[in-house]
Structure formats: structure tokens, C-alpha cells
Amino acid sequence: MDTAGGAVSELAIPNSLLGLTTECYGETGVVVTVSGEIDLSTRDELAEYLNRALETVSPPQSLIVDLSEVTFLGSAGLALLLDTQDAAVRRGVPLRVVGTQRAVRRPIEAVGLSDMLPLHTTVQEALADVPVPRRGEELIGLPLQANPVIH
């Protein structure tokens, strides 16, 4: 109640504009599904979540970030995806991004990141792009020369 004796309306304010889930696909990798808006206000929460997910992945597994339910991707989100990609590369882990809806595709294309952050249409497509884990018993298939020519 307020001081004049009337009722005070309290609106529920969500703690986050993001929905985050993780699903493990065994030796293939880990999929982080993101829903909602990725901007400056949600960047830190998503960064922490992606960092934790990346710590659970080891080569040859991949980290797949499913953005198919994202409704807004701002510059802070783009920078975070690039930072995550850099961290994944340092660990030897491929990063795959899923999401072809306008809210995701448009910002990536507008700033010229299509080559650096290629988009997959589905999680299954991204998983299929992951190299088959090596067990060590198969031949590598590199051409070997008995007498290599040195120029």
C-alpha cells in the first residue's frame, strides 16, 4: 500500500531477457540454446554461460551456439560471439552457430562477419559439420614422398 492508503501495483520484472539451456551430444559436442535478446544488458550473463560450456568441451568436440530463438542480436552479442570463437580456437574446439532468421542473419551480414561466423540452419546440420572423432587407428592419408624435393 502507498502512504495514501491505495494499493501499489508491482509488476514482475524478469531477471533476464535470455533463456539458456545446454545439451550434451556425447563425443560430438555441446549445444547451447539461447532465446531472447542478446545486447549489452544480457552480454555478461551469456558470456559466463558460454565460458562454462566451453570448459566442458574438448577436441574434437564442438561448441554449437543455437541462436534460432534469438529475437535481437546487438553489437555486444556480435562481439561476444567473436570472443567465444577466439577462446574456442585457442582450445582447438570448433564453434558452430545456428540461426538463419533475420534477427541473427542481418547483423552478422551487415558488419561483414558471414565468413567468420558462418550460420547453420539447424543444430543437426551444425552437428553433421563436426569432424568424426579420431580414435588413432585410422590412416591419416597424407601424401608421403620417399625422396622429397627441396627447392
TrEMBL record:
GO terms for molecular function: anti-sigma factor antagonist activity. PROSITE patterns: STAS (PS50801). InterPro entries: Anti-sigma_ant, STAS_dom, STAS_dom_sf. SUPFAM superfamilies: SpoIIaa-like (SSF52091). CDD domains: STAS_anti-anti-sigma_factors. Residues 30-130 form the STAS domain. Belongs to the anti-sigma-factor antagonist family. This is Anti-sigma factor antagonist.
